[in-house]
Amino acid sequence: QQPVQSPQAVILREGEDAVINCSSSKALYSVHWYRQKHGEAPVFLMILLKGGEQKGHEKISASFNEKKQQSSLYLTASQLSYSGTYFCGTENPSGTYKYIFGTGTRLKVLA
Amino acid sequence: NAGVTQTPKFRVLKTGQSMTLLCAQDMNHEYMYWYRQDPGMGLRLIHYSVGEGTTAKGEVPDGYNVSRLKKQNFLLGLESAAPSQTSVYFCASSDLGLAGGRQTGELFFGEGSRLTVL
User: Fold this and answer.
1) Which residue in B42, B48, B108 is closest to A102 by CB distance?
2) What confidence score (pLDDT) does residue B62 get?
């Protein structure tokens, strides 16, 4: 039931763009995105609710398509500080407030 | 402005020993969670709580017990530690968020507790 993220890992040069996808086999009501730097705790980036709205944070934005049960995170003009592991998170679709995370995507930005 | 505090931050146990990890939050959040993260892996939910006095199983609950006697504290116990429980443990808390009935509140994480079982 864990949401699946793709790609598993990506390496970029500074200034390049990247897209990280999060797919669920079950209905999604909301999706959160987090970034975790090595040796640190995950940090919240943004939340997307039903309705397909797109949100932004710095040069990072995301979309949510509840019909396709997918969310995508867009990193534009990547910076060295974007390096880390990105996780999507969502409440278990059964509505029991069981909050689970996706498989994760490791992002490395090179100078 | 402590947020979520985990203690201890590091611990080494021998197989069969028991221990308790304490998570404390000062944001008056209803929901609290315990996750484990193995090297290069994602976050797996162990147990969670939707309010004082309640607990529920997550994805990987075996070998762990939890208690939430006070709203601000969520304890994770290992009764008989095994090497497979070597991991980094993260506690998190959140409130319900804006969309009532659905979990929309962001999770605030503690710094993590690194546990090694020999």
Assistant:
1) B42
2) 96
Hey, what long-range contacts does A15-18 have (CB within 8 A, 24 or more apart)?
A15/A77, A15/A78, A16/A77, A16/A78, A16/A109, A17/A74, A17/A75, A17/A76, A17/A77, A17/A78, A18/A74, A18/A75, A18/A78, A18/A107
For chain A, the average pLDDT equals 88
Mean pLDDT of B86-102: 79
SS3 A60: strand
- Give the least confident one: A89-103, B6-20, B23-37, B62-76: A89-103
A28 → chain B, closest CA residue: B102
Residues in B closer than 8 angstroms to A91, CB to CB, are 102-103
Q: Is B22 an 8 Å CB contact of chain A? A: no
Q: Percentage helix, strand, coil, to 5, in chain A? A: 5, 55, 45
By C-alpha distance, the chain B residue nearest A46 is B106
pLDDT of residue A46: 87
Between A and B, how many CB-CB pairs are < 8 A?
67
